[in-house]
Amino acid sequence: MASGSTASEADLQLSDKDFSRIAQLVHGLAGIVLAEAKRPLVHSRLIKRLRALNLRDFAAYADYISASGSEAERLELISAVTTNVTSFFREQHHFDMLTSTVLPPLLAKAQSGGRVRLWSAGCSSGDEPFSLAATVLGLCPDVHRHDLRILATDIDRTVIEKTRRATYAPEAASGLAPEVSRRLFVNPKAEDALQVSDNVRKLVQCNHLNLQDKWPFRGPFDVIFCRNVVIYFDKPTQERLWLRFAEALAPGGYLMIGHSERVTGPSLAEFSADGMTAYRRR
To answer: Out of 154, 183, 227, 281, which one is annotated catalytic?
Structure first.
């Protein structure tokens, strides 16, 4: 480990050169674009990594993560520069669409012996995939008898571990209807922590995945949620990802994206718009 006497936090400047090196490394690893406006965030979050590694400055950190054998720290870097903001049933209109339009024929397919797969790509701390599972259970309480599963993936191993623990602060239930809270949590009125119920957890499989890497599954998926993820990528990376999602979807499958995102480029030939920030594979 490179080390040296560390300067005070106030003296540690993130130079143009060091920021550019770190931004290039992040883009190469995850496709994430770190714009100049992100420099203060990168500075404040990576200071902690310098302290943990006893590195003297950001140039030493850039050297460290560029060296072979630094895979673990590269994961720490991606975790540090990504923002995981989510909540249960965020962007409610997608869950309304699931309930009214998308899930009924898929559940009928599962009940007749078919295979149904949903994917939360960029699941953050698990609120989204557990919201999907609770929605499914609300329509089909005996879904565990059928071949329906939800895959939850994220590039950040820290939030994947949080999803696996499935424990949330009491305020996570704020604003949820009582019947939804009862479906989601073991004890929705707990004052210390909320534990997601086994019925919900059993539908969800969590795995670490960098969307820029080869995907270790064949699909096809019937529904993909990838919301507020591609906004961190440049346009070529976005357009490659849209095409990969199209290839992973079954014909007629749905792609749900974030409120500020739009499918663009060659993949437009593969999708038709179907509702607010929802697309359907042609």
So the answer is: 154
Strands 221-226 and 194-195: unpaired
Taking the CA atoms of the chain, what radius of gyration do you get in angstroms?
21
116/34 Cα distance (integer angstroms): 36
- 45 a catalytic residue: yes
pTM of the model: 0.89
154 is a catalytic site residue: yes
Strands 271-273 and 278-281: antiparallel
Residue of 45, 56, 164, 182 with catalytic role: 45
Q: For residue range 247-264, list pLDDT tens digits in order.
A: 999 999 999 999 999 999
Residue 223 β-bridge partners: 118, 254
pLDDT tens, residue by residue, 147-161:
999 999 999 988 999
Q: Per-residue DSSP letters for the chain?
A: ----PPPPGGG----HHHHHHHHHHHHHHH-B---GGGHHHHHHHHHHHHHHHT-SSHHHHHHHHHSTT-HHHHHHHHHHH------TT-SHHHHHHIIIIIHHHHHHHHHTT-EEEEEEET-TTTHHHHHHHHHHHHH-TTGGGSEEEEEEEES-HHHHHHHHHTEE-GGGGTT--HHHHHHHBS-TT-SS-EEB-HHHHTTEEEEE--TTS--S----EEEEEE-SSGGGB-HHHHHHHHHHHHHHEEEEEEEEE-TT----GGGGGTEEE-STTEEEE-
